[in-house]
Amino acid sequence: MLHRLANTLDAGHSLLEIVFALIMIIGTTSAARYAFWQEQPSREEIVTATVLLILAWAAIDALFTVLSAVFQLGRERLAARTAGGPVPPLRLTAADGWAALASFCATSVVLWPALIPFALPIGDNLALWLSNAIAIVALWWIGWFWARWTDFPRWLCGLALAGVGLLAVAVTLLLGVA
User: What is the pTM of this model?
Assistant: First the structure.
């Protein structure tokens, strides 16, 4: 089943969704203490908010996958109608369901490691920095992994995505929320 899920999604689409989700986690864990509560929340509140964000984003990403399939069907129907041919039915397939499930799994699985530091008996600031570091390392790995579908150097793609994560951390620092 994992092999089927891994080979279901378009590499370019899944890359963008996963990278965006990791950037959201960096911002959420950094800003949660200041943006959502008047007083500093407990670790449990930060983790709960982040888990809900992970599940919500994974569900939204799965829905986007289905909407993309419906849009593609609509384009095929328009092309057939314009050409005067038979218009295919507007019907989702099992492959669309697998793509939605794969999207949900890929988006959520990549985000869970960023929560590990909050389960450790360490200070809040260290947990936040470790969480950000895990997300940045995950971004590097994702860039390195996805580069195999391009002719770009793998190390450069990893470095570019890690740079995006570092930029997200820098922005939260500049805004004074981390």
Answer: 0.64
Concatenating the DSSP letter of every residue in the chain gives -HHHHHTTS-HHHHHHHHHHHHHHHHHHHHHHHHHS-SSPPPHHHHHHHHHHHHHHHHHHHHHHHHHHHHHHHHHHHHHHHHHTSPPPP----HHHHHHHHHHHHHHHHHHGGGGGGGGSSS-HHHHHHHHHHHHHHHHHHHHHHHGGGSSS-HHHHHHHHHHHHHHHHHHHHHTT--
Predicted confidence (pLDDT) per residue in 72-114, tens digit: 888 888 889 999 889 888 888 888 888 888 888 877 777 788 8
